[in-house]
Amino acid sequence: MRALVSLFVVLLTTLTATAAVASEPSVRQLLARYDTIRPDDDQLAMYRLDWVDSLADAQDLALLDNRPVCLVVIHARYGDITSGHC
Amino acid sequence: MVRALQPYIVTSWHGHRNDPDLPEAVQTVWQEKFAAGHKPRPRQLKKTFEPRSPEEHRQRQSNVDIAILDSEGNVVHWFDAFKHAGRGPAAQTLAAYTAGEIQFATSQLALTSRPRRVRPVVLPDLAGAPAVRILCTLEDDRMLAYSAPTVEVVPITGTERELLAWSSKARTVDAAELKSWLSQIYPPGVMERTNPQTKEAYRIESVEGALTLTPAGRRGKHRLMILAGTITLTDEGSKNFSEDHFSDGPFSYDGKLEILLAYPEGSDSFSGLRGVFDGIYPRLDRMHNQQRNIPLRAAIESIDTDS
Predict the structure, then answer these.
(1) CB-nearest partner of B122 from A23, A47, A71
(2) Nearest Cα to B201, choosing from B10, B12, B14, B62?
(3) What element of type H or E holds A36?
(4) Where are the domains of chain B?
(5) Same domain for A33 and A44?
(6) Chain A contact for B119, CB < 8 A?
(7) What range defines the domain where residue A75 resides?
(8) DSSP label at B202?
(9) Looking at beta carbons, which residues of chain B come within 8 Å of A26?
(10) Which three-class secondary structure state does DSSP give residue B252?
(11) Staple partner for B79: which of A80, B10, B101, B291, CB 3.0–4.6 Å?
């Protein structure tokens, strides 16, 4: 009986280890796909600019810092250049 | 262009000419732009850069303009954001055209002596609050502007943490419960999915899919789970629409979602996540009246979650 329990424990341990090992490639593959799909710094270059959420806030900051403002004006009922949707 | 814009604070505004609260700078630009109506004319090629004259502005117009304001809010220079045939050197790219206009404005502001160190990439966040960031790309080889990634940030709620809590057993999760995250997966250009009456862009109305949340071993001091399955996103508009045509059922697209979640030892709440969406967006080619199936992909990541 003791031998049977030991065998069961070994078998269970092996199966658990197998399951953990089996999931590891999935984790690696998922992280690799994330790295591939995530845009790099070149693709995200517009986020090297000093974006401010609204024209009013930009003008307040401009006065404080004595800096100019670049304003993108979109003639539409939609468009969020900061997020990239236009 | 990024280098040329380093001295500037950058922002955007959108609206229509009859809006009651037009900012003064926008009024200035549009008064000049629309002063003589919309009169497209052929143009002459120019070999060297010269700022556009008001007469040139009136010749061809897009719906996007870029205005340069001094620190007191005065419009120093403005230009149509899209370069048209006949403007500048024939082979000039849109980026080079924009940089040329910005450099001209900078010279008017006497800013050329300011340092031009390029800032590091700083992506949007929620000022330290735990959030999910979705970086989405439509891989449209016919419209390069659409290949530019969008970046959206949404907060992580307690409900979402409970929904995705650690479990040693696999279980099913309704994708609709993650609508606030997944509804950010849509193309950069929203102009083709707008309500013709209100001119508002259609939002994602529903997210559907049965996802499985499965234990996936451990890494270091973290236990892992993978959330996976196919999701369908449906927006508020009809599949095929125009000014006089509203029919043909809802507009949907789908793709495969996979998210890896990490849970610190002793906690059922995830401390970080990384994921991907890989789908197909059925874009209507109005010119050829046919559908083009374009890869739509997104990287999904947690920020400010201690991981």
Answers:
(1) A47
(2) B14
(3) helix A2-37
(4) 1-122, 131-303
(5) no
(6) yes
(7) 40-86
(8) P
(9) 216, 226
(10) strand
(11) B101
- If you compute the radius of gyration of chain B from its CA atoms, what whole number of angstroms results? 24
The answer to whether B151 faces chain A, any CB pair under 8 Å, is yes
Q: Is the CB of residue B260 less than 8 Å from the CB of residue B293?
A: no
Q: How many domains does chain A have?
A: 2
A60 at the B interface (CB within 8 A)? no
Based on the domain organization, do A55 and A85 belong to the same domain?
yes
Clarify whether residues A49 and A17 are in a common domain: no
The DSSP code for B207 is: E
Cβ contacts (< 8 Å) between B2 and chain A: which residues? 45-46, 48-49
Classify the complex by whether its ipTM is higher than 0.85, answering yes or no: no
φ/ψ of residue B57, rounded to 5 = -55, -35
Task: Please give chain B's pLDDT, 307 residues, in tens.
Answer: 888 899 999 999 988 888 888 999 999 998 888 875 544 444 444 455 566 665 555 555 788 899 999 999 999 999 888 766 555 566 667 778 888 888 888 888 876 555 668 899 999 999 889 999 999 999 887 777 777 899 999 999 999 999 999 999 999 999 999 999 999 999 876 667 878 777 778 889 999 999 999 999 999 999 999 999 999 999 988 776 554 444 568 899 999 999 999 999 999 999 999 999 999 998 877 777 778 899 999 999 999 876 4
Q: How far is A18 from chain B (nearest CA, A)?
A: 10
Same domain, A52 and A73: yes
| Beta partners for residue B13, in sequence order | A73
Q: Are B236 and B252 in contact (CB under 8 A)?
A: no
